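Hello Y.,

Per our agreement to keep a running log of every chain we model this quarter, I'm adding this entry. I've kept the format consistent with earlier entries: sequence first, then predicted structure.
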Amino acid sequence: MEKVKKTATNKNEATPTKQPQEANHTEKIKSQVLAKIGRPPRLHRVEVSQHFNGNYRVNIWEQPEPTENFAVSLGVHIRSSYYLKVSDNGEIIHSNPPLAKVGFSA
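Predicted structure for the entry above:
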């Protein structure tokens, strides 16, 4: 069966306008966050999700500390989470909670 490509029948139809896209600064944000809080020894990943108007959420995921008493491995979990306001060029303006060096256990 042949696929048929539909085309607009009326040339005067309005074409949808594109909404302006916000710049995505995820890599820059990751490096800034890790520079400010330090790198956790069991870091699994840093997850940055873009919201609206320069707002981002950053989750720091870590692997659990291995113990000799457990036969079952535990899954990764969120060690800390931050809500950020970021400038147009990707610099962190505000963080809740504040970004500060965290005493990670080794």
